[in-house]
Fold this protein.
Amino acid sequence: MVKERILIVDGDIELSSLLKSRLEAMGFMVDCARNGTEALEIIKSKWIGLIVMDIVLKGGINGFQLFKKVKNRKEFSHIPIIVQSTKVAMKKTFELMGAETFLIKPYSVDVLLEEVKDVLTKKILILGDKDNVTGSIARSLNRYDIKVDILHNMGKFYFNVISYRYCLVVLQYRMRPNVTDRILSIIRGSSKNREVPVIVYVAGKTTGLDEKELRKIQSLRGRCETLGACEFMDKGYTNKQFMELADKYLGSL
C-alpha cells in the first residue's frame, strides 16, 4: 500500500523538522510549509492525504483562513486536517468546522503520530448479532482489504465510535423501540464519525414482519435520509446487492 503524503504547516521550524523526521520514519511522504501561502501552493501542486497545521501563521493567510480555503474548495475539501495550537479557546470552533483533531500545544509527538495513523488507516465497523447474516456481510467486505471491526454489543460500539474513525459503518436494524435511533445518534454525535456513510440492514426478509414493524422500518428509512449518506436495506437483499451498495462508498479506496 502506498503511504500518504502529509503536509505540515507550522512556523516553528524545529517542530516541523521533528515531525517530518518521525513521519518519514513511519514511511510517509512529508512536505513542510511555514505559512498559509506556501501551504496553498503545495496543496495545489501535489496530492495531499493529510494536513497538520497550526492556527498562528505569518505571511498573509492565517490558520483559520487556510482551513476555510481548504474546506470550501471542492477539490480539496476531502483532505483531513489535524489542528495543533496553543489557542485552547478555538478547539470547539475547529471541531465544528470539521477538524479531525485539535491538539493543544505543547503535546507529545507520539500522541500526534497515533492521531495520524488513526486518520489515515481505513476501517469498517459492523454492529450486528452473532448470526450468519452478519458473518456473510463481514466476509463480503473482506474483498476491499480494509480492516473490519465486528461488534455485537453497545458498550464496545460506543467506545469504538468515539475513539476511532471509520470509512463505513454497517448497522443491523434493531426491532426494540428507539435502539437504532440511539445508535445512529451516537454515530452522528461523535466528532470522528459524524459524516461516515452508514448502511442499515434488516436480518431477514420484510415479508415476514407485521404492519407495525414495517411502519417502524419505513420511519427509520426516512430518518436515515435526514442523516446524510445513509442507506437502508430491507427487502431480502442478496450479497451481490449489498456489495453493489458498498462499492458506492468503498470502490475508490
The radius of gyration is 21 Å. The mean pLDDT is 85. The first strand starts at residue 5 and ends at 9. The chain has two domains: 5-120, 123-250.
